[in-house]
């Protein structure tokens, strides 16, 4: 935002875009004082500011979510209960039968992790599985890893 400037003419030069514009193109900051940036420049600045702010905020919330997920994974043993996968990007919390309703309510992701944390990481109905095993379990009722052992 520019400095205040007392208008003396019918137009003034925007200190940002260096264009000469009629006074109505400038915002009135105080009675008798106009912004030294034109409305267009101010709007652009505002939008840029908002974008940057949003980016920062998103980055912050992502790292925060990431930390929470790491905590969840560590608490639930750090690896897939079925195949032993340890790469956190693959890991997810699986609900055993009684917990299914509850899981549906939260779906996957941060809300669910927050919920787990709030309830002191209940172990009874939850276990750590990788995406593969979790998906297979949902699809076939049992992970092929387990079926293979039985054959
Ligand atoms: Zn301007
Ligand atoms: Zn697995
Ligand atoms: Zn498996």
Main beta sheet: 3 strands, antiparallel
Number of helices: 5
**Helix coverage percent of residues?**
40-55%
Average pLDDT figure:
86
Low-confidence stretches: none
Structural class: alpha+beta
Shape: rod-shaped
Q: Give the helices and strands as they follow along the chain.
A: EEEEEHEHHEHH
The number of domains is 2
Strand content: 15-25%
List cofactors, ions and other ligands: zinc ion
* Strand runs, count: 7
| Biggest sheet: strand arrangement | 1-5-4
The termini sit apart by 72 Å
Rg over alpha carbons: 28 Å
Short characterization:
By secondary structure, the protein is an alpha+beta fold.
Could you please describe the fold and organization of this structure?
There is one protein chain. With 151 residues, the protein is an alpha+beta fold. It has two domains: 12-66, no CATH class; 76-150, no CATH class. 46% of the residues lie in helices and 19% in strands. The strands form three sheets. The protein has a three-stranded antiparallel β-sheet. Strands 2-3 form a two-stranded antiparallel sheet. It is rod-shaped. The mean pLDDT is 86. One zinc ion (ZN) binds next to strand 7 and helix 4.
């Amino acid at each position: 935002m520019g400095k205040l400037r007392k208008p003396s003419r019918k137009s003034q030069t925007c200190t940002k875009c260096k264009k000469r514009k009629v006074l109505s193109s400038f915002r009135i900051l105080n009675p008798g004082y106009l912004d030294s940036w034109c409305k267009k420049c101010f709007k652009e600045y505002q939008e840029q500011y908002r974008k940057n702010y949003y980016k920062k905020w998103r980055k912050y919330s992502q790292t925060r979510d990431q930390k929470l997920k790491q905590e969840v994974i560590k608490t639930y043993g750090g690896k897939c209960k079925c195949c032993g996968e340890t790469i956190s990007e693959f890991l997810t919390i699986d609900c055993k039968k009684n917990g299914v309703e509850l899981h549906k309510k939260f779906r996957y992701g941060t809300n669910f992790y927050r919920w787990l944390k709030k309830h002191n990481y209940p172990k009874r109905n939850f276990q750590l599985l990788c995406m593969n095993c979790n998906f297979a379990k949902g699809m076939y009722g049992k992970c092929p890893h387990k079926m293979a052992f039985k054959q």
